[in-house]
């Protein structure tokens, strides 16, 4: 909770660590290169008009003809890296698609939210990222239809939200070609159209005086639930154990006859069969730091390799 006594120091920090851009992203730890696959805006200035098409993929962000399309799979881990900023606020990621071509899609229209981080354990999302060189990790939904998508990363700076159109949106759109098992995600929301300048999570008149940040949720609907498709199965380590089974066959008597004598020969045959019983045991070390570890519809790891699994909302928990 902010007070008037810490306002001056916060404003000094905000001035020192100001505007920002998304510069790089990784798919399962692999980057295609600096600014590759991202529709880069002409400057690091914010968008403040939520009714403008600039709110979709930033200024001049309606076309990605000269931007690479990066391959990914449903369920992959995405890590983004922004310029660090002292502006308090959330980070949100949304998908638009599948579309006929990520290069030509404007992004105007339907989106669905796949992640958001607001104020958790006394820190805004930007503070979490400042402690990690501007990086933040999350997972694509496991149930996505194959096709090309726009992946939108939004950081909202709330330090000037006490005035209408004072909130600052920093936006970066990435171009992906996703291979997935199929699925449908809802709810969806439209950009532009879903945000209003007077929404109580965009215009916050008491942001530094009495506002309770723990109650804050980022603009747009809740994180979408993606259903349908098979989705990736948990990784298991198979342990095979050989079990030997011995079966005694029936005893038979063969009568061998010759001209002189008749001899009974008793023959016992033992048949031995071997069967293999497979047992499996799960393996894995949990979700990475800042990775998803829970939420409605989540099928991935629910423990953390580092940090504690912390609930952000009913649809998203994260290792912090």
UniProtKB/TrEMBL annotation:
Keyword Plastid listed? The answer is no
Compositional bias (Low complexity): 259-280
**Key words of the record:** Carbohydrate metabolism, Cellulose degradation, Copper, Disulfide bond, Metal-binding, Monooxygenase, Oxidoreductase, Polysaccharide degradation, Secreted, Signal
Q: Which Pfam families match?
A: AA9, CBM_1
Q: Does the keyword Oxidoreductase apply?
A: yes
Q: Please list the GO terms describing molecular function.
A: cellulase activity; cellulose binding; metal ion binding; monooxygenase activity
The signal peptide here is 1-18
Q: What is its EC number?
A: 1.14.99.56
| Domain (CBM1): residue spans on this chain | 285-320
InterPro entries reported for this sequence: AA9 (IPR049892), AA9_LPMO (IPR005103), CBD (IPR000254), CBD_sf (IPR035971)
The compartments listed are: Secreted
One GO biological-process annotation of the entry reads: cellulose catabolic process
Q: Where is this region: Disordered?
A: 259-283
> Which reaction is recorded as catalysed by this protein?
[(1->4)-beta-D-glucosyl]n+m + reduced acceptor + O2 = 4-dehydro-beta-D-glucosyl-[(1->4)-beta-D-glucosyl]n-1 + [(1->4)-beta-D-glucosyl]m + acceptor + H2O
Question: Which Gene Ontology cellular component terms are annotated?
Answer: extracellular region
**Highest rank taxon of the organism:** Eukaryota
Which cofactors go with this protein? Cu(2+)
Written domain comment of the UniProt record? Has a modular structure: an endo-beta-1,4-glucanase catalytic module at the N-terminus, a linker rich in serines and threonines, and a C-terminal carbohydrate-binding module (CBM).
Q: What does this protein do?
A: Lytic polysaccharide monooxygenase (LMPO) that depolymerizes crystalline and amorphous polysaccharides via the oxidation of scissile alpha- or beta-(1-4)-glycosidic bonds, yielding C1 and/or C4 oxidation products. Catalysis by LPMOs requires the reduction of the active-site copper from Cu(II) to Cu(I) by a reducing agent and H(2)O(2) or O(2) as a cosubstrate.
Q: Return the protein name.
A: AA9 family lytic polysaccharide monooxygenase
Q: What is the species of this protein?
A: Orbilia blumenaviensis
């Amino acid at each position: 909770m902010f007070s008037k006594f810490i306002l001056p120091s916060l404003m000094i920090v905000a001035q020192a660590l100001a505007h920002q851009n998304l510069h790089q992203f990784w798919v399962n730890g692999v980057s295609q290169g600096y600014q590759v696959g991202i529709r880069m805006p002409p400057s690091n200035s914010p968008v403040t008009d939520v009714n403008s098409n600039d709110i979709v993929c930033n200024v001049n962000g309606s076309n990605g003809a000269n931007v690479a399309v990066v391959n990914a799979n449903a369920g992959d881990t995405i890590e983004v890296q922004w310029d660090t900023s002292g502006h308090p606020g959330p980070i949100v990621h949304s998908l638009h698609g599948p579309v006929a071509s990520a290069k030509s899609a404007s992004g105007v229209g339907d989106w669905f939210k796949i992640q958001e981080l607001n104020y958790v354990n006394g820190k805004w999302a930007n503070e979490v990222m400042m402690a990690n060189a501007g990086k933040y990790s999350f997972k694509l939904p496991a149930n996505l239809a194959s096709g090309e998508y726009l992946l939108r990363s939004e950081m909202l700076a709330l330090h000037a939200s006490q005035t209408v159109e004072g909130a600052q949106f920093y936006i970066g759109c990435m171009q992906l070609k996703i291979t997935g098992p199929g699925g449908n995600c809802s709810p969806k929301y439209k950009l532009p159209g879903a945000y209003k300048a007077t929404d109580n999570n965009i215009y916050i008149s008491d942001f530094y005086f009495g506002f309770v940040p723990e109650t804050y949720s980022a603009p747009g609907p809740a994180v979408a639930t993606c259903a349908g498709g098979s989705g990736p199965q948990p990784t298991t380590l198979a342990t095979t154990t050989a079990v030997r089974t011995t079966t005694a066959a029936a005893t038979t008597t063969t009568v061998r006859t010759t001209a002189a004598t008749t001899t009974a020969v008793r023959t016992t045959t033992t048949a031995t069969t071997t069967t293999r019983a497979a047992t499996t045991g799960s393996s894995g070390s949990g979700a990475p730091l800042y990775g998803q570890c829970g939420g409605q519809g989540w099928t991935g790891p629910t423990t953390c390799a580092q940090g504690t699994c912390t609930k952000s909302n009913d649809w998203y928990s994260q290792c912090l």
